[in-house]
TrEMBL record:
Protein's name in the database: Acyl-coenzyme A thioesterase THEM4
Top-rank taxon: Bacteria
Thioesterase domain boundaries: 133-205
Entry's Gene Ontology cellular component terms: cytoplasm; membrane
GO molecular function: hydrolase activity
Family: Belongs to the THEM4/THEM5 thioesterase family.
CDD domains, alphabetized: PaaI_thioesterase
Lineage summary: Bacteria, Bacillati, Actinomycetota, Actinomycetes, Mycobacteriales
Alphabetically ordered keywords of this record: Apoptosis, Cell membrane, Cell projection, Cytoplasm, Fatty acid metabolism, Hydrolase, Lipid metabolism, Membrane, Transit peptide
Keyword Lipid metabolism: yes
Source organism of this protein record: Gordonia soli NBRC 108243
EC number of the protein: 3.1.2.2
Compartment(s): Cell projection, Ruffle membrane; Cytoplasm; Membrane
Length: 232
C-alpha cells in the first residue's frame, strides 16, 4: 500500500497515488454519483458535436453549462489529477483514466473484462471520436489498444509502463460499436510483450503489439507497479 501521494518507499517518488479510507457504503455511493454525472457529461459532449440548433438555444445551453461548472467547482480535489486512489479494503480507483475512468467523460468508457487468457471490452466509439469522416480517429484507437494491452499484461501478473506500442491499421474503423482485446504473449525479465486488436462486426480493423516495461523505480522499490492500473 502506498502511504501518500508520491511516496514509493526506497527513496523513490512518483506522483499520483492517494490512500483513502472509504467505507463500502461510501464507495458505493460515490460510484453511483460518479456514474450518473459522467453519463450526463458524456451526453453533453455528444450533443455538442451533433447539435444544429439556433444561436439562442446555444446561448441558453452555455449559461447552464457555466452554472454546472461552477457547482462542480464549489469543492474540488486537493490535487490537479484524480490519480490512483487506494481504499482501505485494498481496492483501487483510477476514475480519471482517459480510457476507463468512470469519472472521466472523455473515456468511452471501456469496461474491461478478463479471463485466464485475455482482456477485452465491447463499447461504442461515437461522434466525439471521429477522425476521417464517419471513422474513428487513429490516435483514439491507439489509446484504446494501449489500455487493453497494458491491462492484459497487468492482469496476467506482468505489469509495466508502455515502452513501445506498434499499431497496424488494417482498414478503417467506422464510428459505432467496437470490440478491443489483448493478451500477454510472453515475459522477458522486466519486459512484457502483449498483442491485441480492435474489431467491428465486419472483422479486425486494427492490430497492435506492445512492450510494457517495469520501470526502474518499481524495480528499485518493491517490484509493485501501480502506475495506471486499478479495479474500478
Ligand atoms: C492497467 C495498466 C494499463 C496501462 C495502460 C496505459 C499505459 C500507459 O499509458 S503508460 C504511459 C506511457 N508510457 C510512458 O510514459 C513510459 C515512459 N518511459 C519510461 O517510463 C521509461 O522509459 C521505461 C519505463 C519505458 C523504461 O525505462 P527504464 O525502466 O529506465 O528502462 P531501462 O532500464 O533503460 O531499460 C530496461 C530495458 O527496457 C528496454 N527499453 C527501454 N525503453 C524501451 C522502450 N521505450 N521500448 C522498448 N524497450 C525499451 C531497454 O532496452 C532495456 O532492455 P534490456 O534489459 O534488454 O537491455
Amino acid at each position: 500500500m502506498v502511504a501518500a501521494d508520491g511516496d514509493r518507499g526506497a527513496g523513490v517518488t512518483v506522483r499520483g497515488y492517494f490512500n483513502e479510507d472509504l467505507s463500502p457504503a461510501e464507495l458505493e455511493h460515490r460510484t453511483r454519483v460518479a456514474d450518473d454525472l459522467t453519463a450526463d457529461v458524456r451526453r453533453l459532449v455528444s450533443a455538442t458535436v451533433l447539435t444544429d440548433t439556433d444561436d439562442d438555444s446555444v446561448a441558453e445551453a452555455r449559461r447552464h453549462i457555466a452554472a454546472a461548472t461552477a457547482a462542480l467547482q464549489r469543492r474540488t480535489l486537493d490535487s490537479d489529477h484524480f490519480g490512483i486512489r487506494y481504499n482501505s479494503d485494498g481496492s483501487r480507483r483510477h476514475w480519471g483514466n482517459a480510457m476507463v475512468g468512470r469519472r472521466n467523460p472523455i473515456a468511452p468508457p471501456m469496461v474491461l473484462h478478463h479471463d485466464a487468457e485475455r482482456t477485452w471490452a465491447e463499447f461504442e466509439l461515437g461522434a466525439q471520436y471521429e477522425g476521417p469522416g464517419g471513422l474513428v480517429h487513429g490516435g483514439v484507437l491507439a489509446c484504446v489498444l494501449d489500455q487493453v494491452l497494458g491491462s492484459a499484461a497487468e492482469h496476467a501478473g506482468a505489469p509495466g509502463m508502455t515502452g513501445t506500442l506498434t499499431i497496424r491499421y488494417r482498414r478503417a474503423t467506422p464510428l459505432g460499436p467496437v470490440r478491443a482485446e489483448g493478451r500477454l504473449d510472453r515475459v522477458e525479465g522486466i519486459k512484457s510483450y502483449a498483442t491485441g486488436s480492435v474489431s467491428t462486426a465486419d472483422g479486425v480493423t486494427v492490430e497492435a503489439e506492445g512492450v510494457f516495461i517495469l520501470p526502474r523505480w518499481a524495480r528499485a522499490a518493491d517490484g509493485d507497479i501501480r502506475t495506471a492500473g486499478g479495479d474500478a
